[in-house]
Specification:
The chain is α/β, with parallel strands linked by helices. The strands form two sheets. The protein has a seven-stranded parallel sheet with strand order 1-10-9-6-2-3-5. A three-stranded antiparallel sheet has the order 4-8-7. The longest helix has 18 residues. It starts with a strand and ends with a helix.
């Protein structure tokens, strides 16, 4: 695992954007795995500015998002489809038909998850997957458990995750208690993974990411088994 420590959030965002921009130039028709939450917002802004300046293009890019709240319609202002449209897709020259987010209203989430994974495989697999790290170590919505799912699946959210995400909703009671998420196996199949972490609240997880152990109680630690992971964090996350 390569670790890049940045001075602050803005620098972290620029470092992440540079890695994605390099891939876009090398492989214009790449497949991106994208994340939501507050952490990648700055990086998406950087990419939008680079696109507007003509430095990069998303015209031939295909994207697959990690997760979606369940049950939540794509036009709900807290859905991850809405988030991606607002923070990236509407601000760059990507073909919206080539952007994919798990269906938060699927009648059969298990079947939808299997189809989502199959579609990624058929497309050639994810070239670069963006991840955040939850304060409890979750990646996507793979929460600390005794056992972790391999494929895309419906999962319950822990109280700590609901609490952390409640800042985006009118109240904690409005936060969905379930989500559809890529599983650990789907994430680990990505050719390259970029992990973003910012703030003191992530320090304990960063420490777990840097020791020599793996535990399902900190799902992010499984990334130590991947051959090409870049962890980009700010000093607050690294030093606490």
């Amino acid at each position: 695992m390569k670790i890049i420590v940045c001075e602050n959030y803005d620098e972290m965002s620029k470092e992440g954007a540079k890695i994605i921009a390099a891939l876009l130039k090398e492989k214009p028709d790449c497949i991106l795995g994208l994340a939501t939450g507050s952490t990648p917002v700055g990086m998406y802004k950087e990419l939008a500015e680079m696109n507007k300046a003509g430095e990069i293009t998303f015209k031939n890019v295909t994207s697959y998002n990690l997760d979606e709240y369940y049950p939540l319609a794509p036009d709900h202002d807290q859905s991850y489809r809405y988030f991606m449209n607002q923070n990236l897709f509407n601000n760059v020259d990507i073909d919206i038909a080539k952007t994919h987010v798990p269906d938060g209203l699927a009648e059969d989430p298990a079947a939808m998850g299997a189809a989502y994974d199959a579609e990624i495989e058929a497309a050639g697999g994810i070239d670069l997957q963006v991840l955040g790290l939850g304060p409890n170590g979750h990646i996507a919505f793979n929460e600390p458990e005794d056992e972790l799912y391999v494929g895309t699946h419906l999962t319950g959210l822990t109280d700590s995750t609901i609490e952390a995400n409640s800042r985006f909703f009118a109240s904690k009671a409005d936060v969905p208690t379930q989500a559809v998420t890529m599983g650990i196996g789907t994430i680990m199949k990505a050719k390259k993974i970029v992990v973003l972490a910012s703030g003191k609240a992530k320090h304990a997880v960063i420490e777990k990411m840097m020791d020599g152990r793996i535990t399902t109680q900190v799902p992010g630690t499984i990334l130590k088994c991947h051959p090409d992971v870049v962890l980009i964090c700010d000093k607050a996350a690294m030093e606490g």
